[in-house]
Every structure is written in structure tokens, then in C-alpha cells.
Amino acid sequence: MSRIGLLPVAIPQGTEVKIDGSEVVVRGSRGELRRRFHPDISIALKDGCLIVTRPSDSKIHRSLHGLTRSLLANMVTGVSEGFEKVLEINGVGYRAQKTGDKLLLQVGYANPVEFPPPPGISITIEGTNRIRVTGIDKGVVGEAAARIRAIRPADPYKGKGIKYFGEKLHLKPGKSGKIGKK
Question: What is the pTM of this model?
Fold first, then answer.
């Protein structure tokens, strides 16, 4: 029994949901999201909540049940509140700036690295070392943040590079000298 799939998705005030067969359109104050789901999983709108049901207890239907409910909840949250990821840059001379709509990163390479944001994503810079990625689609926000982080991941020895805000780095010890030499 899916504990996630059985939970109803509450629709907040000002959010509109339209179900057309296996396609769901969610409109809110921040925008509109549209997604097509597996046709075996049924989605119904009852008493201001979205209810997801499955036709059988087969393995594929059980896995799609919780997935569909989670995706619907993320769509409703995205158009009403939005999602954000915060990245932090550590290192001497490492910094970020915006030129137009592109992100320009100086992270220890010979030339600055340009990152054009995908459609539906806005990037803001706080100071010179904090990047805030916001949008309504949780998957696109996470993908954009992961691509920015992949430009220069945090070094395990010195901690220099780009990391998620609040991410704990386990720094490795460097060389501890020549042992055993007489």
C-alpha cells in the first residue's frame, strides 16, 4: 500500500486545476504547469483536493501511484509558492555576476564561464558568492542548480568551489609528511 499515493493533494486558494483525461493543467499566481501522466492512473478533483487512485496492486501501478501524487503535489506547490535552490561559492577570487540574463562565473579557470538559464528559471546574485535559482518547476530548478554546481564542484581538500547552501563538506587531510624515512 502506497502511503504517499493515498494522501490527497490540497489545492490552495487562487490555484486552478484542470484535468483532461491523463493530462493535468495547474494554473496559479506564478504561472502554469502542464503534464501528461500514465493513462492507467486516475486523477480526480474532489472537495478542493486531488485524489490519485490505481487500478490494481501490480508492481508498475504501485510505483506509478506514489510518483503521480508527488508530481501533482510539486506542480501545485510550484505554481502557488515556487521552488528555489541556493548555491554558495567559496575560494579566493571566485565570484559570480550577471551580464544581461546570463550568469558569469569566475571560478579559477583561465576564462570566465557563462551559464545561460533555461526557460522559466530566474537567477539572482546575492553579494558575489551566493546564487539563488528560482522557478515553478521543481525538476528544472534542481537541474539548473546541479549544472551550475558541476562547473566547479567543491574541492575535497580545500573546500574551494561551488556547493549548495548548507551542504556539509568532509575535508580530506592532505599529505601528512614523509613517514618512515630515517
Answer: 0.88
pLDDT, one tens digit per residue, over 50-69 is 999 999 999 999 999 999 99
Question: CB under 8 Å to 141, separation ≥6 — which residues?
Answer: 83, 84, 85, 121, 133, 134, 135
The three-state secondary structure class of 75 is: helix
Q: Which three cell numbers stand for residue 113?
A: 564561464
Burial of 134 (0-12, 13-18, 19+ CB in 10 A): middle
Domains, the chain, in order of start with CATH, read 9-80 (3.90.930.12), 83-164 (3.90.930.12)
Residue 179 pLDDT greater than 90, yes or no: no
Can you point out the beta strands (E) in the chain? 9-10, 16-20, 23-27, 32-36, 42-46, 49-53, 83-90, 95-99, 102-106, 113-115, 121-126, 130-135, 161-164
Query: Would you state the pLDDT for residue 172?
Result: 86
For residues 63-99, one letter each, b for 16 or more C-beta atoms within 10 angstroms of the residue's C-beta and e for the rest, the string is ebbbbbbbbbbbbbbbbbebbebebbbbbeebebeee
Q: Quick: pLDDT tens for 77-121.
A: 999 999 999 999 999 999 999 999 999 999 999 999 999 999 999
